[in-house]
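Risk register update: the risk that structure generation would not scale has been downgraded. Supporting records follow, first protein first.
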Amino acid sequence: MNEKKNISVIIPHWNTPKLLQRCLDSIPMLDDIEVIVVDDNSTNIDKDNFPGIGRKNTKVVFSEKSITAGGARNIGLDNAVGKWIIFADADDFFHDNFYKIVSQFFDKDFDVVNFALNSVHSDTLQPAERVPKIVEQLTKASEGDEIAKEYIRYKFLYPSCKLIRRSLVYTNNIRFDEVPASNDVMFTMKVATSTEKISYNPEVIYCLTYREDSLVRSNSYKNLKSRLSVAINQYNHLKKFGKENYTQSILSHWWKLRKVGYSKLFVNIPYMVVNYKPKALYNDLKFAIVHRIKNSLTK
């Protein structure tokens, strides 16, 4: 594989080979694009006929043990040679204008370029509502709105819509959390706080799909606890920069633990108090109450 690549596309995969093929089909086979697929120990797959095998400028790595999506992305980072990195989930896909849009930034003096995405239901391709107001916020940010810039920088958590300079990731030793869920949050936060050279582009390059059996829909205890832990880590990281108000709602993640039993709520209270300070808990609760009241008044 020619090592002079402008962009490396990294795709973690687990048990969705047909959707992976759809994702691969959305990526142009050009000399300056490399694709790295990392399979996270899928079951019942044909490695000889696996999507990406034999595809131009595509490397497929099979893990013989379960490493999580974060671990698969880290292996992708270890193998990437492109000047820029962008990520995709195997069940999503890029739009036709993807390369034309991102290639305009290959020689720009940015470290991160944010783009927009839309969402559809994976089986029907009918519109879904998973990414509200992203285009609106990116448009405002591109016009210089400082509030919108900070919203995108600290709240827009999808690495699939960010063109990231590879040297930024390596110089700052930024990696994905190898956790059951929310592996991309801290990676995105560390990227956001490692540079001021950020660009905002409201053009849509990526399609996020909605599946009932996807990881984001899973409410197992290990996934709910993982999201809670990551949200607390996000708070503690952003607090160093005075941006903790952009943290996901810790209480919301804690409250979701009731879905696997109210006992889990009480078991995790000491964990919350130790790792997420009482004052922050109070502010989070106050915000949740005010938000709920505002919503009820507008209905």
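Supporting record for the second protein:
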Amino acid sequence: MTAHLDAPHDLVGIGIGPFNLSLAALAHGLPQQGAAELATAFYDQRRDFRWHPGLLIEGTTLQVPFLADLVTLADPTSPWSFLNYLKHKERLFPFYFAEQFHIQRAEYDAYCRWVAGRLPGLHFGHQVDAVRWNPERDLFEVDFTQLDPDGEAEALGRTHTRNLALGIGTAPYVPEPLRPLVDAPTVPVIHSADYLDNRQRVLEAEHVTVIGSGQSGAEVFLDLLRSRPAGRERLTWLARTPSFAPMEYSKLGLEHFTPDYTRYFHQLPEPVRDRLVPAQWQLHKGIDADTIAAIHQELYRRTLGGGWPDAVLTPGVSVRTAGRVATTKVELHLEHVEQGTRSRLTTDAVILATGYRERPLDSLLAGLDPYLRKDSSDRPRIDADYRMILDPSVTGSIFVQNGERHTHGVGAPDLGLAASRSAAILNTLTGKEPYPRPTRTAFTTFGLAPREHTRPRPAGELLPLVEHP
């Protein structure tokens, strides 16, 4: 093992997705002690940056505006902004005339790869194996394996750091009834994350079923619909949700993705937070209105010659069990919750647009387990500044990126809060305020927290309720 015993890093990031890439970009050139720059390093086992490559379907767009890039909402003057990327690519004027507030996913991926290719301190092809706390040096030890282009171990290494940032992201989720079928070689049962790699194989299937009512499910269904002949679509789209519902995109609804709401949510009791997150599914699991309109328009177009397209769209359905039929088909056992009825569906291919789950940290942080403080559901406790709550003997901090939904709410995986969270982490890390944060970000006032009134109260302002025995 090659041990790096030089000066320790101020921050080591594990994982290089959009969130840690945002942190690396905003940390670049930032002073820490005196004139010295913040010493950072970021590690990822992938060979290079890729953002959901299996879902970069032609024409699909981000669900957030281009201002939700890696840096702009914390520092509009940053050289790592999307607009500066366009300038370097000599595409600023074409973008200006295109008047596109929501850019294509493929363009966002290209922008992030541009940043990742130019930003120093990023180490791709490095798999982090273990993290420990060294009480003698007051440092975290990070063991990693350097991988060759084929993903095989090439060398072992170790680095030391005062602080960590976990940004290992999420993993595709496959429901339990379908897990035994995913690896079946003769029947394509694939997660939507791998859709483009398997698209041709799926298009050749006689009948295709899409499961999942979120944006990914809608985009896959629309792509399949457009690619199959009228009258012979042979498509089924199933969803557990009671409807193919639009995402909450009203102006005041979007204020759930502000630092104001994040602060409010973090202060709520744990049981209340746990009830809120699933109830707010339409804030982040619905379908954008343009995609719904495009699906309806495509279905309608196929009725112009008379008849209806051979496509079945059924919400309110769950998959109870599933199994193979012979070697080339899958049989899904379905249940309609509202009707209380059950049925079977035989299909030749299944696309699972069933979302993602946070990657477990247990294995990676096994060496730190004695120092971790957890909640009643055995999840890491995370403070308002995105730090895991650790034993007081640990002088360093472990920051969490997109692993704190249970403490910070539905905005945790949202790209629009990436720069704001990175700014909060760096402000905490440096003990200064290199990125001043706005005192208010929403017109909505979340909650009825009492305030000290040192000014005249405007008409209509609510007073705290005082209860007397």
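The CA atoms of residues 108 and 416 lie 13 Å apart. On this basis the risk owner (M.S.) recommends closing the item.
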